[in-house]
């Protein structure tokens, strides 16, 4: 299969050589591979963007999962921001609350757009709709944000993994956060190389993160990990825009993530057998939700 | 490259909570339904690895049944798939297995009705993307790099030529092809990887050819 890029180095080189945005390279590759028109491809991404907007809106109104483990935190965060005393700043908290909103909707079996997965679906839209208020992008620029995220995600999915069962949470929320960070750079007017630096900085800080969902549900700790993924993405984007670079090149960070995932015991890869899932409270919650003979100390 | 489209990464639009365990599971169910060609009256679903450990929490079971009822990943009816299956009189059973498999998210779906039955193995490789690894005991070796057509047919002379001629007529180039059969004159399977997208018209024409039992598209 002929592709325009196989790794981040090729992606950045092509964008810089041709004087194009990373999102543009992704759109061109999609046209090449699928034989679809630009208009068709842009329309599909526009629809995905609409799904993301609706999920955030729904989450900000307050939703609760069937298990009762998650829900309502996005509302708490928005109310707290409105009081005007936030320490970490409104943009960051807005991104966090909107990431949480999306994942609360996901946990409640609502409709979301996987980016790159459902468990990590909050980070890309969360950051997008928060940064939007600062940068005032056009609808097309917002759609391009998703193509830029997709270009980096494409590399990770093909060269490493975006599955928690295969590579832990680093492969899901780690990838999502790094993708978002790279997309923020393009929307903020940074260079393709800076997108690559932001991606590398973000992913480096999420390496080793295990997938240990309580009761096997995509709720605890997934919702809060999306919150932190979003904040990681915004901060790393600021670092890259400030001129900070990653000592380890982007593609090598992706390889490292893959290797770490391969070495991870299966207890930490979405089996709900280790980490937070195996804590006394985690087990107690599991028995409370599904019944069974698990005895824990719980609250 | 297993992930070809940007919409494999930014997508699918789906009912939560898990792309691999819910959306991928629904897709595995739906491919099985598609291959079977009609609504099965019973289903036995064997789950392996992470699927076996966490299927309840991820609604993997509900999603697979939804797929068997021909629902897409974003179909709201996935949530009530068990009730819908009962209405349609489809019985189902989930069997968590402890055996080792190559991929952590593996399901073996055995479905049937009073006419016939079918067995299919599917894996969910992340982000809602799936691969079919076995059909009725035939291992499928798909590269996943190209659209593929599966043709279940009777082992009779001329079948392969007819299928190849039909693809030629629509200017579809075959990149890789494998043919296997259980026994001489028994059921056989063609796995064809092609370079072009295969549309509904081509699929319908293939279905109309003599001695062809079932035709489906995967991995495009």
Number of β-strand runs of chain A: 1
Number of domains of chain A: 1
Examine the coordinates and then state which fold CATH places here, giving the name of the CATH topology of chain A: 2-methylcitrate dehydratase PrpD
Choose one word for the global shape of chain B.
globular
Which segments of chain B are poorly predicted (pLDDT under 50) over 5 or more consecutive residues?
none
Count of DSSP-assigned helices of chain B: 6
Q: Name the pair of protein chains with the most residues at their interface, and give those residue counts.
A: A-B, 63 and 44 residues
* Residues in helices of chain A, as a percent range: 55-70%
Regarding quaternary structure, what we see is heterodimer
What amount of the residues of chain B lies in strands?
25-35%
| Residue share in helix of chain B | 25-40%
Summarize model confidence as the mean pLDDT of chain B: 91
Q: Number of helix segments of chain A? A: 13
Into which percentage range does the β-strand content of chain A fall? under 5%
Distance between the termini of chain B: 12 Å
InterPro entries (chain B): ACT-like_dom_sf (IPR045865), ACT_dom (IPR002912), ASB_dom_sf (IPR029009), Fe-S_L-Ser (IPR051318), Fe-S_L-Ser_bsu (IPR004643), Ser_deHydtase_bsu (IPR005131)
GO molecular function (chain B): 4 iron, 4 sulfur cluster binding; L-serine ammonia-lyase activity; metal ion binding
Catalytic activity (chain B): L-serine = pyruvate + NH4(+)
Pfam family, one (chain B): SDH_beta
């Amino acid at each position: 299969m002929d592709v325009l890029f196989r790794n981040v180095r090729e992606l950045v080189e092509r964008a810089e050589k041709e004087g194009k945005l990373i999102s543009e390279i992704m759109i061109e590759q999609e046209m090449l591979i699928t034989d679809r028109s630009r208009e068709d491809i842009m329309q599909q991404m526009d629809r995905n963007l609409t799904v993301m907007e609706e999920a955030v809106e729904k989450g900000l109104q307050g939703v609760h999962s069937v298990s009762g483990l998650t829900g309502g935190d996005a509302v708490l965060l928005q109310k707290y921001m409105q009081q005007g005393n936030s320490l970490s700043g409104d943009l960051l908290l807005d991104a966090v609350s909107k990431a949480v909103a999306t994942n609360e909707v996901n946990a409640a079996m609502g409709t979301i757009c996987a980016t790159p997965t459902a468990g990590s679906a909050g980070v890309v839209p969360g950051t997008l709709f928060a940064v939007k208020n600062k940068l005032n992008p056009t609808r097309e620029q917002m759609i391009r944000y998703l193509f830029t995220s997709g270009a980096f995600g494409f590399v990770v999915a093909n060269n490493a993994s975006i599955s928690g069962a295969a590579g832990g949470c680093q492969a899901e929320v780690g990838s999502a956060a790094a993708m978002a960070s790279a997309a923020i750079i393009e929307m903020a007017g940074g260079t393709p190389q800076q997108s690559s630096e932001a991606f590398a900085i973000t992913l480096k800080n999420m390496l080793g993160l295990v997938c240990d969902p309580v009761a096997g549900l995509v709720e605890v700790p997934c919702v809060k990990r999306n919150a932190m993924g979003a904040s990681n993405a915004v901060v790393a984007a600021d670092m890259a825009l400030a001129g900070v670079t990653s000592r380890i090149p982007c593609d090598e960070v992706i390889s490292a993530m893959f290797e770490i995932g391969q070495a991870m015991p299966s207890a930490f890869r979405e089996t709900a057998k280790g980490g937070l899932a195996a804590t006394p409270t985690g087990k107690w919650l599991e028995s409370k939700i599904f019944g069974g003979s698990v005895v824990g100390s719980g609250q | 490259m297993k992930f070809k489209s940007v919409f494999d990464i930014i997508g699918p639009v789906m009912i939560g909570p898990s792309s691999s365990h819910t959306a991928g599971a629904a897709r595995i169910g739906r491919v099985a339904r598609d291959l079977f060609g009609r609504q099965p009256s019973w289903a036995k679903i064997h789950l392996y690895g992470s699927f076996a450990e966490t299927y309840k929490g991820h609604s993997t079971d509900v999603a697979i049944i939804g797929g068997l009822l021909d629902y897409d990943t974003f179909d709201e009816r996935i949530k009530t798939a068990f009730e819908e299956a009962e209405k349609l009189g489809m019985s189902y059973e989930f069997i968590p297995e402890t055996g080792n498999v190559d991929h952590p998210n593996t399901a073996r779906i055995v479905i049937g009705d009073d006419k016939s039955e079918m067995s299919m193995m599917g894996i969910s490789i992340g982000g809602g993307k799936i691969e079919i690894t076995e059909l009725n005991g035939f291992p499928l070796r798909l590269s996943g790099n190209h659209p593929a057509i599966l043709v279940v047919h009777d082992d009779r002379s001329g079948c392969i030529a007819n299928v190849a001629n039909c693809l030629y007529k629509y200017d579809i180039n075959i990149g890789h092809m494998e043919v296997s059969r259980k026994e001489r004159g028994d059921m056989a399977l063609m796995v064809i990887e092609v370079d072009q997208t295969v549309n509904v018209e081509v699929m319908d024409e293939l279905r109309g050819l003599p001695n062809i039992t079932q035709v489906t598209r995967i991995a495009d």
